[in-house]
Write a structure and sequence with these properties.
With about 325 residues, the protein is mostly beta strands. The chain has one helix and 26 strands.
Length: about 325
């Protein structure tokens, strides 16, 4: 057995052990009087429907929840060669979690990131194909960038791209990603504009830029995963500042709540392949001070949950995709 397979097996065993010991409601922690509760019975998927790893989450202008999941697949190396023949994109009702629409069959090998822009277009990244996709709200393909199954480090190629953030003028940023450790900006038409970043630990360097989002000023927030930090840049890629904290590990995703401009993030912590601590949801004030965290934090101090992406709606509800337990969770704020 290879080392990779052994570590994966041990992580799975540990996850199953902790899964029997932990739950969401037992880990409510807050420093600003806001607590969050997991909404029971959400989502209400069709009887017999099996959700796979939910790797990307976004919200449209009507509050519908979009989910990108791997439909029967998990991350394996090498990646499968064939396209997934079933629908990979779900549109869920915010209140019930019932499936309102689904599409995305025969487009993807290994789904990863999902973003819904202000015009309700849906942007998707596929790490197996090394490509970026733009679809209409109902699943019609509008744009595809990158060369299928061909990684690269130039204006026409990506190497395991992870996420997309779209500006109001239609230009967009790609976190690229596992292979290239860079951020690339394109025009609304998909023309290469510029890039920044390389592998490293200094300012403007990355070790797996895994998630990306924009604030109302156009500043770019990057979840610099393996550097355990969030880096912030202006719209031209100039470094502004960063957030890191030794009590957090592997920041997977960032999300700017549109109406409040509050920053949210998620992390995932392991001490070793045999000791899984799980994920926390993090929220920050306007000065980038952490003022709320919940998840593994609390009386149990561990969880089986591995949050891969999150999105926050206008009412402050937080939606996360748990790729270990292959489920979606909606957290609502309570006083």
């Amino acid at each position: 057995m290879s080392l990779t397979k052994f570590l994966s097996l041990m992580t799975g065993i540990t996850t199953m052990i902790y899964s029997c010991q932990s739950n969401h409601s037992a880990t409510q922690v807050s420093s600003n009087d806001t607590k969050y509760e997991a909404v029971k019975g959400w989502p209400q998927l069709s009887e017999g429907y099996v959700l796979s790893q939910p790797t990307g989450i976004g919200i449209d202008t009507s509050g519908n929840i979009f989910v990108f999941h791997r439909t029967g697949r998990t991350w394996t190396e090498p990646f499968p060669d064939s396209l997934i023949s079933l629908n990979t994109v779900l549109m869920l009702d915010k209140e019930t979690g019932k499936i309102l629409n689904s599409w995305g069959a025969n487009y993807f090998i290994m789904p990863h990131g999902l973003t819904v822009d202000n015009d309700n277009n849906v942007w998707l990244t596929d790490v197996g194909l090394h490509q970026i996709f733009k679809f209409t709200h109902d699943g019609k393909l509008l744009m595809r960038l990158g060369v299928a199954k061909t990684p690269g480090n130039d204006s026409l190629h990506f190497n395991l791209p992870t996420d997309v953030a779209v500006a109001p003028d239609g230009s967009f940023y790609v976190s690229d990603g596992y292979g290239n450790s860079r951020v690339v900006k394109f025009s609304a038409e998909g023309h290469f504009l510029f890039e920044w970043g390389k592998k490293g630990t200094r300012q403007s360097e990355f070790q797996t830029p895994h998630g990306i989002d924009l604030d109302v000023k156009g500043n770019v927030y990057v979840a610099d995963r393996e550097n355990n930090r969030i880096q912030i840049f202006d719209s031209s890629g100039k470094y502004l500042r960063e957030w890191d904290d030794s009590t957090f590990k592997r920041v997977f995703s960032v999300n700017i709540q549109k109406n409040t401009q509050q920053l949210f993030a998620i992390d995932y912590m392991t001490i070793s392949p045999l000791i899984v601590k799980g994920s926390d949801v993090l929220s920050f004030d306007s000065s980038l001070n952490l003022f709320n965290r919940f998840g593994r934090t609390g009386e149990l101090n561990h969880s089986s949950d591995w949050y891969h992406d999150l999105a926050v709606d206008k009412d402050g509800n937080i939606y996360v995709g748990d790729i270990t337990n292959k489920k979606l969770v909606k957290f609502k704020p309570v006083k």
